[in-house]
């Protein structure tokens, strides 16, 4: 029996009237930090005669007028009501529908502080010459820039017309044309139905480089060459995923490298992944992010969680696919290192979280769905998938997953839907009649912590790193003679986590002199070193962590540094001073998290 996919994070009524298509029309106003224009919603009555209203989600939108049409040619104004704002959900917009209406046109403007839109001054970009604007709709931020049914259970196609200042390029999670002239007007079409959180727009000084027949990268001109070199295995990753899980169904896969304020590593907007520049390490050591976002083209974009309590269906399956892609392209040694480090990260996260937040099928009623975006849906979810693979065998599990993507293609599903399909198509025919009970599926999905049958990962490369760290810590070996010449980012990270947490000033200086950690260009290595520097009050790194915190806005890399700083009175004072400078350049999503730490 299908689980009721009622979304507790939406005011919408798609069980009565559902939106099938959007026509969007905007002027991008950098001077006012707004999008001004209209959204035309093509609606379908699910139940004949069911209600005479369409309920939509909004957040801080100024609604100017609402009109109805039954043919797209003749329009008449209709009453509407903008309800009281909820601090998490925003405000419901209720539109009175006529009996014949099939289209609803809403003229509106966004707020300068829209939670899903960030506008950057020229000084905040790589080129320093032009402003930049980008959106971030996951989880429920699309409603801050489009009035719509903002739930992943509703999928829409869309067309858009975007007018920009001259010399700037607009791109969207839709069909993009890199040759489109910079004449101030851009047109887009997304023909495949997608959930609202995957609608995305960016406007800036953007160049394009092709990386293959179906892949390319957009970035500011000073960044685009290094980005294309870093990500040039993307076409090979696509081919590997298609061999495993079926055809890529979105025509092109391009990436957009955003300015450093982007709050996430990546966002899997279909056809155009948004990515942080912090993954451009120069040695491809951080391109697991590209594998992850590409994998979302199957798990998340093609088959989507119907509500945010089912988020693990997006992320757990995607981390599993990511590992399989990396194994195909870079080999098992790389995957073993990634998996080992991630298990450590998950154990640390589980120790930090309260039991209700350790559950895959998490109850987020009354909470911001962003609260559920920790390591649990990603890494506990991946371990569950890996357990299934190891139990039934990789060939059989691959066949199951490929059929799963075909069966639910372009649909949004619940955890209940997944379990029903799993039971019917993987477990029911197994010779072991008690296999479902042996797997402890209920414990994995509905209980906190990790079940005892959770898979473990081992990495010989990381074991050797631990041995070298122990030799140094015991005084047996100096830092300068450690065998590190061919270490990857993963090995450096493990080394910094393997040495004692408390170090002397002399030991910190020895490391810095031997390895140049304070000036490390790799954002992940610099992050781990700066955590170590804060814990050990290593003053030579103070200037670097100030420039690091001011210079980037990726929440994963900056929030733990603030968390560590505020543990001492001196550190809190330093955190407050740095945050005063850095906060104006951070995305609203990052600000909301770090305010709780620095400005409780």
Structural account:
Helices cover 37% and strands 20% of the residues. The protein contains 18 helices and 21 strands. The chain has helices at residues 221-230, 234-245, 288-295, 311-330, 332-352, 375-392, 394-407, 415-427, 435-439, 441-446, 460-473, 489-498, 505-515, 523-535, 542-551, 555-565, 569-582, 588-598, and strands at 17-29, 34-45, 53-58, 62-69, 76-77, 80-82, 91-96, 103-109, 117-120, 132-135, 155-163, 169-172, 185-195, 201-204, 207-210, 215-219, 253-257, 266-267, 272-275, 303-305, 411-413. The strands form 5 sheets. A 7-stranded mixed beta sheet has the order 5-4-8-2-1-11-13, with no helix packed on it. Strands 15-16-17-19-18 form a 5-stranded mixed beta sheet. Helix 5 packs across helix 6 (375-392) and helix 15 runs parallel beside helix 17. The longest helix has 21 residues, at 332-352. The relative contact order is 0.08. The model has no long low-confidence stretch (mean pLDDT 94).
